[in-house]
Amino acid sequence: EPFFVSGNTQISVITLILLVPIFYLASWAGNGTRRFLEAGVLDRLSLDPSRRFSVVSLVRYGIMAVVVIIGLSIIGINLSSLAVIFGVLGIGLGFGLQGVIANLFAGFMIMISRPIKEGDRVHIGELEGDVVHIRLLYSVVNTITNETIVIPNRQITENTVHNQSYEDSSIILMTDVQVSYGSDLDQVNSVMLQVGLQSEYRHGNRPPRVLFRSFDDSGITVTLALPIRDAVERHQARSAIVMDIWRAFKRAGIEIPFPQRDVHVKALPAEVGPSLKPLAAQDEDAPADAAPPDDTATRR
Question: pLDDT tens digit string along 6-60?
Fold first, then answer.
């Protein structure tokens, strides 16, 4: 017995039960289409990873939508009546589902414009990690501390995203170090260049550069700009380069200064002079019958 009738559409308990295999079949068809495209068709088209991701995602969701529409028609649900029902519900729920709709359209925009793709190393706000999944409503990022962060797609399209793997996964790693003002800068330049050339993380034959940045309070700031192969190796590369610079400076006798200040006192005010007199001398000048100091005042 149907509990809802609208035109030619009759919805009963059996109808609702039949929705389960329809959505399961749609999911199976979408995943099968994705595997087929990735294993066969796309390999022959020579597409870059970002375009491959867009094509696979759009075709997958398109196949799923077609299967759902055909399945609803088979079990007797009139799509025109269903559209009217959803339209009426949309008027009442639209204000409460604005965030969901915004994330849905943001998901389509990500798949079409491809600002990020699965496998990219990204910075989103304070987060840094690899994009694991991109769904219609959200994206999943696995951080460098192995935390799984679920980010609504709206935040990705509305905020600045640093994509270190957008077209080229190689980046230039900037490592700062200070040297004392008494250092030989030509020697510093030579030592740091040698460190960059011998680094195991250097990308191909791209040469490193040494930049003398600024005169600071404690020393001269020098930067080693080293092209590395992959942004994923950024933290390991920085740690190795810092250690290599420290060892090379130690062998070459180059000083890495620490923050310090020299204070030169030219003269003391007249009223400060007597107060700096040594305590022993003050005790000698005190009369012999002077009263002992008040312990309470001393403790205070």
Answer: 556 666 777 778 778 888 888 888 888 877 777 766 666 666 666 677 777 778 8
Give the bridge partners for 152, in sequence order: 138
Give the global pTM.
0.59
In whole angstroms, what is the distance from residue 173 CA to residue 239 CA?
11
Walk across the sheet containing 138-143 and list its strands. 148-152, 138-143, 127-134, 121-124, 161-163
CA distance 4 to 275: 98
Radius of gyration of the chain (CA): 35
Q: Where are the beta strands (DSSP E) in the chain?
A: 4-6, 9-11, 121-124, 127-134, 138-143, 148-152, 161-163, 171-179, 209-215, 220-228
Residue 7 to residues 4, 17, 19, 75, 81, Cα–Cα distance (Å): 10, 21, 20, 15, 7
The 8-class DSSP code of residue 140 comes to E
122, 131 in Cβ contact below 8 A? yes
Judge contact between 104 and 145, C-beta under 8 A: no
Separation between Cα atoms, residue 257 and residue 179, nearest integer Å: 6
Q: How many CB atoms are closer than 10 A to CB 279? A: 7
Give 77: exposed, middle or buried? Use CB within 10 Å, 0-12, 13-18, 19+: buried
Distance CA 33, CA 37 (A): 6
CB 106 within 8 A of CB 139: no
Q: Which of 208, 202, 212, 205 is nearest to 225 (CA)?
A: 208
Q: For 165-199, what is each residue's pLDDT tens digit?
A: 877 788 899 999 999 998 999 999 999 999 999 99
Identify whether the C-beta of residue 239 lies closer than 8 Å to the C-beta of residue 233: no
Which two tokens mark 263? 């204070």
Burial zone of 19 (CB within 10 Å; 0-12 exposed, 13-18 middle, 19+ buried): middle
47 in helix, strand or coil? coil
The structure tokens 């196949």 sit at: 63
